[in-house]
Amino acid sequence: MSKFYVGIDFGTTNTSIAYMAYRSSINDYVPENFNLFSSGYTCKTVIGYYNEKDYCIGDIAVRNSTDKCKDNFIKSIKRHIIEGNKIELSVQKTYKDIVADYLRAIKEEISRKIPVGKTIDGVVMGVPIGFEEKNKNLFLQALHEAGYYNSLEDAEKNTVFVSEPIAALLDYNESLNKDQTAMVFDFGGGTMDIVVMDLKNISNRNEIEPHEVLAKGGCQTIGGDDIDKAILEDIVVDKIGGVKKLKEALSINLLEDIYKSPDGIGLMDLIRNTKEELSKTKLSYINGYIGNKHIDIEITRDELEVILKRKFVPRIITEIDKVLSDANDGYGINPQKIDIVVMAGGSSLIPCIQRALEEKFGYKKVKIHEDAVTTISRGLAIRGHDYDKSKFNDIIEHEYSIKITEADGTKDVIEPVIPKNSKIKDINGGKYKTPFAIKEEVINKNIFSIEIYEDDKRVGKAAIPINSVHIMDNCFELKFVIDENLERIEIKVNQKSTGKELLIPIENRYVTIRKLL
What we know:
There is one protein chain. This protein is of the alpha+beta class and 517 residues long. Among the domains are: 224-304, Actin, Chain A, domain 4 (Alpha-Beta Complex), CATH 3.90.640; 400-512. The protein is 32% helix and 28% strand. It is built from 15 helices and 25 strands. The strands form 6 sheets. Strands 1, 2, 3, 4, 8 and 9 form a 6-stranded mixed beta sheet that branches. Strands 16-15-10-11-12-17 form a 6-stranded mixed beta sheet, sandwiched between helices. The longest helix has 31 residues, at 301-331. The chain starts with a strand and ends in a 5-residue tail after the last strand.
């Protein structure tokens, strides 16, 4: 592909960005991460504002969070967007502004590191399973405002959204030497995503076959941030002397307000560092100041694992079982038929989490990615560089239906059109169609409406113009077309006898896919 795409993993805790670099020694392209601000291949996804115009990101923002940016520091940006939290900064910024400012700083950093003669033509953006359409639109606008595109139209045309766990599997597939049924467990700072996928060994094929997504799911409200909070509440508070003493030291009224306190931000950063150390050692210390009070707390891995086994492991296994149940229902895939489990995301490095998956799938099957923190951005770069090598047949996560009246006219019913876990290629190929006729009381009108349901929730209503020619043969057929990149549904209605498509105004033609939570 001649276009130069970058893969951006805008993570809850860290952001990484990758591209495909040409290596003359192997006469091929390989994914490579940009070095960001001399701090390695990741940059903390935090931002601090000095004023309305000037700001800093990453480690510099963390260092300034207690003084220069103390009233205008925000972390876990993606998690806040997902949860719809209110912005509490003294500067006037929307989430679109914050994301745009962050991505602008990243673009300025990588601009001098892009291969000679290349400019950014497109972006492959990683999103967690369940990321809503409105939030994807927010990212499109932010990419435009950050200078990645000249117009919003260009952003819509040249941005591809890919589920983060699928990107991790695309990166892993580079080392594949045979077909495998793989599960990726992507456990990051704010979300947990799971995908079961039939991976094809593309390196030894004359004809490239697409990978097949068999099942996917996860949870947008569990991640490393929640583990940090549990360490605070279940270990640190007790060792400091209780909630009251901690709130007094931080000058806060509620423990939930800890991120509103500069010292609270510092304490949570120390807790996160300790959590990461406990993935490598059995003993760590939280050593620093809360206000004028010096603290020196010893925390063991055993203490952390008590919390993990009580609060997190059962929930993780439940989510995995849900995805495996879908894979089993559709394809007969059970834990024994999973060939490999790829763990991605910073929180997947926690030994207790790894052992839980090893107990379920077997020690030999569970693989920790060589660089679990940056694997997603590399997979995104692969997706943008060579569509054929990275193409996959995706599935939808919900059942889609329309409301119709039964033939005897007695009551309205929800009539399924597309079953849950249907292949998008089958949907777009016209496999799922629903015939219907218009009610008599509507025949004299020049428009009729179709209500669209996602599972049991009404998600859209299409107003469709009709005329006397249509009414002469009152038999229609509805089908959906899925836009894979933007993840939305287009409604199509044909007159059944002629196959002629009815023109639906563009404002009524599309329904947002409500992603699985």
